[in-house]
Amino acid sequence: MRCPTLADLPPPPEGKTGWPWTEETSPVPESMPDGKPWPRISIVTPSYNQGQFIEETIRSVLLQGYPDLEYIIIDGGSTDESVKIIRKYERWITFWTSEPDGGQTNAINKGFKRSTGEIVAWLNSDDLYTTGALCTAAKAFAERPHSAVIYGDADTIDAGTTILSHLNSRNFDLQDLYRRDYIRQPASFISAEAIKMIGFLDERFHYAMDYDLWVRLGQEEAVMRYIPRTLAWFRLHGSSKTVSQQEAFWPEEFMLFDMALKRDASDASLAGIAYSHMLRSLIFSHLSQQPHEIFSRTDKSAMNDDNGEAFYQQPLLKILRFISMDHLYPEDDYPLTEALRKAYLVFDSKYNSGENNHSTDVESRWVDEQLILLPNYLLSFEEKTESIRLYKKIIRMRPSLLRYPQTYKFPIRCIARINLVSRIRGA
After folding, report:
1. How far is CA 402 from CA 197, 307, 392, 394, 408, in A?
2. Environment class of 198 (CB within 10 Å of its CB; exposed 0-12, middle 13-18, buried 19+)
3. What gap in Å lies between CA 325 and CA 315, rounded to an integer?
4. Which of 39, 82, 105, 251 supports an S-S bond with 297, CB 3.0-4.6 Å?
């Protein structure tokens, strides 16, 4: 289907102006510059009770001016105005349904399995594409025909579609990806061949399914290309998962890296980054008093040794005792660094059993990195005073950390994060 024009669509609600209400992408020519037809792009929107935002999402897809769009909406049985809005645009929607499903990941997979495009993507029902995003992605795939994923930058927006910040991405590197998910999901487009080859999204994930997908593709050495263009607007609002359900990401992060290590733990540097994520997930879950969530969302065999005991438990408890809110008693360097060292060793023995790739240098750097990161864990719970106290305490007991540039990121983050949270909550 060729995308409709602004004149074809229903008029916007009163007072709505700008993209994608009163602006559109100029129609793309029928063929590419080399005379070949444009590849079909299939966009899937999973939807559930996002009636406040879904019309804006739909229009940002339909007004791309693209010559061969397939648009699929999988609604989970919304009880708000979502279905009414979908019906308003159904003339231009290839397929839509509204029925109970297995959650967002299941809905996306249902859409992917119905799609016929050479390029696929999903756009959540509160996010938007920027003008010309589809054409930009198609050109990038044509220039790099062996790519599995093309991804760009994104802007964060609030409930009123005011831009809050810009999210840069970067050229693909698996080690960087292990450290953090810098691929902006709304700004990413995937080869249909690659998504089928990898087995679609893993429906055990409800929050980190995109991060898991990128890691799996990266481990398969798939070609993932970055283009420095803003392709999407990612909405932050009070009921979005990123804002309201942050604690639910932690057990999935543990599961993600447990599975990644089971597929391949041969690279000691990558494994060390994975251990860091897993330790953070455990600490976050315990600090939030929801340690049971780790067990309920992950394969219990990943958490236990052969005797059924939690393999991380003793060193973790010592680490937690040190960073807990009542750490006002004197403590020297040894107990914390030793507990972190033991945490590394139990992870390493769990995932590198029988492998002779242990490095004391990697282990030592890993312990130092955790010392630098520990104050951030309290800051993530908005415990600014306790975070600063812990930061000072760690620097006093281990001044050698001052040689790492990462050490100085904490004071900056302490200020920047609190300001950003205040802006989001105010919006």
Report:
1. 46, 41, 11, 10, 8
2. middle
3. 18
4. 251
Q: 3-state class of 143 per DSSP?
A: helix
Q: What angle do CA 74, 77, 78 make, to 5 degrees?
A: 100
Last residue of a domain, one of 193, 227, 242: 242
Is position 256 within any domain?
Answer: yes
The two structure tokens encoding residue 366:
């890993």
Same domain (yes/no): 422, 328? yes
**One-letter-per-residue 3-state SS of 170-202:** CCCCHHHHHHCCCCCHHHEEEEHHHHHHHCCCC
Q: What are phi and psi of 42, to 5 degrees?
A: -105, 120
For residue range 119-145, list pLDDT tens digits in order.
Answer: 999 999 999 999 999 999 999 999 999
Our CA angle for 94, 121, 135, nearest 5°, is 85
Task: Give the CATH number, domain containing residue 165.
Answer: 3.90.550.10
Backbone CA torsion sign across 87, 93, 99, 103: negative
Let me know whether 373 and 414 are in one domain: yes
Q: Which domain holds residue 228?
A: 41-242
| Same domain flag for 122 and 205 | yes
Tell whether 195 and 288 lie within a shared domain. no
CA dihedral 277, 279, 284, 287 (to 10 degrees): -170
